[in-house]
Amino acid sequence: MGMILIFISFTLLNSIPPSYGYDPMDPQGNITIKWDLLQSNLGTNDLKVSIYNYQLYRHIEPPGWKLGWFWTGEEVIWSMFGAQATQQGNCSRFRGGQLPHSCEKAPEIVDLLPGTPYNLQTSNCCKGGVLTSMTQDPSKYGASFQMNVGGTTDPGNFTMPINFTLGIPGYSCPNSTQVPPSKFTSDGGRRWTQALGTWQVTCVYSQSLASPSPKCCVSLSAFYDNTIVPCPQCSCGCQGLPGSECVKFGETSSLLQQIQDPTQAPPPLVRCTRHLCPIQVHWHVKQSYKEYWRIKITVTNLNIIKNYSDWNLVVSHPNLQSVIQVFSFNYKSLDQYASFNDTAMFWGIHFYNDMLLQQGDQGNVQSEILLHKDPGLFTFREGWAFPRRIYFNGYDCVMPPPDRYPRLPNVGSTDKSSHSVIVLSFLLLLVMF
Ligand SMILES: *[C@@H]1O[C@H](CO)[C@@H](O)[C@H](O)[C@H]1NC(C)=O
Ligand SMILES: *[C@@H]1O[C@H](CO)[C@@H](O)[C@H](O)[C@H]1NC(C)=O
Ligand SMILES: *[C@@H]1O[C@H](CO)[C@@H](O)[C@H](O)[C@H]1NC(C)=O
Ligand SMILES: *[C@@H]1O[C@H](CO)[C@@H](O)[C@H](O)[C@H]1NC(C)=O
Ligand SMILES: *[C@@H]1O[C@H](CO)[C@@H](O)[C@H](O)[C@H]1NC(C)=O
Ligand SMILES: *[C@@H]1O[C@H](CO)[C@@H](O)[C@H](O)[C@H]1NC(C)=O
Ligand SMILES: *[C@@H]1O[C@H](CO)[C@@H](O)[C@H](O)[C@H]1NC(C)=O
């Protein structure tokens, strides 16, 4: 009965379509673009543009942001520091003099790479377009560049461009709104200057805009049950269907030889599995102690052309409010930001496992987590020990149906964990390959 109830509630939860631009795990999440007009003189304007990734767990990975907009007048970018326009465009109307940096009506701006010469840098620039989430590294979630803009139709009156884009799938940006001017200090707060004008654009993410098909799935096992519950078949695609190419284990693909455009993220190229997901998360209920229990999480990369740098996992499970210890991953509860207390974020340790390598022997990361058995809450019954929801890099992972979850044996569950671990690891290998 309980199992059926859980099943129904899960089915309901999973069937609620994600509402446009709203993420219940990160209701405030947004990427804000801020324009500060620093100087305006004889029709040329010095501007500072900043991008802040105000999202708890979504980050911007290589090849990075590519900021675009549309000038409404005859504006040109005379110079730029800390970033560059990808196209100079048609600057022939300036023939005979110094040419602007970009005359494009709809310029596309990319970040400079780390190690850019100092004379082209500005503060907080040159990260190759990569921005971490607010949680993962509070010092690296922002970027900025400066530019000098001329050609404004009405000298002395700067007009904001329209139609902003971030160049990353899934984000939509409204037009700018003017906000109170930013203030800057150069003397530890004893004197403040302020921008002549400040505008903001707040872009929001929507998974349905980003990608219609899932990118990740979950498999489950427990020491008390010998079966491994695999990722649901066709979670991310079905072998043999058009658009679902995969590479058999032991083979390499001719697609690998193609030259990649460094400014475009390549589409995933995955190993052939029953689920065709580039990422598989395995949740194993490993051990039961008197007052604690232990789970093991393994994240496997089945994408053969991508290393996931600064990957992260968001997990929702009621016992995450009583975490005792997390091994080999960084951990932060997301309680303080929202009205729930069962959600936490995990990510790799710098220089140890913050890079989830492309498919192969090294293509996985693992952690064990020790949790307290809260009286009145904890149980191994009815699938309680399994996660409610898992996100990898912000992608909702497909869970197995709850009626398939590992079950407690009906009689005398004793500690047979060490034996099952070996059996399970073997089975896991079988399932994956
Ligand atoms: C964007 O995120 C910031 C930081 O969390 C928040 O203060 C701001 O209200 C958000 N903006 C919108 C429009 O949601
Ligand atoms: C470049 O712009 C000039 C005017 O500014 C125009 O006359 C010319 O046709 C343009 N050239 C091209 C190739 O678009
Ligand atoms: C600047 O331009 C806007 C719209 O184009 C106009 O409403 C405003 O009056 C102008 N301001 C000045 C100081 O010219
Ligand atoms: C700006 O965006 C709107 C709505 O997305 C679109 O209709 C319009 O054509 C765009 N304008 C330009 C100049 O790109
Ligand atoms: C921005 O404003 C322009 C002109 O005012 C309009 O055509 C366009 O649709 C607006 N874009 C968005 C995304 O609202
Ligand atoms: C992933 O990282 C490994 C080790 O640093 C490197 O050898 C490999 O070329 C990288 N793969 C891709 C697709 O960048
Ligand atoms: C967590 O949230 C639930 C329901 O919102 C509440 O009943 C419980 O007391 C909370 N636990 C803690 C430790 O805050």
TrEMBL record:
It is a lipid-anchor; GPI-anchor. GO terms for cellular component: plasma membrane; side of membrane. It is found in: Cell membrane. Keywords: Glycoprotein, GPI-anchor, Lipoprotein, Membrane, Signal. Belongs to the COBRA family. One of its GO terms (biological process) is cellulose microfibril organization. This is COBRA-like protein.
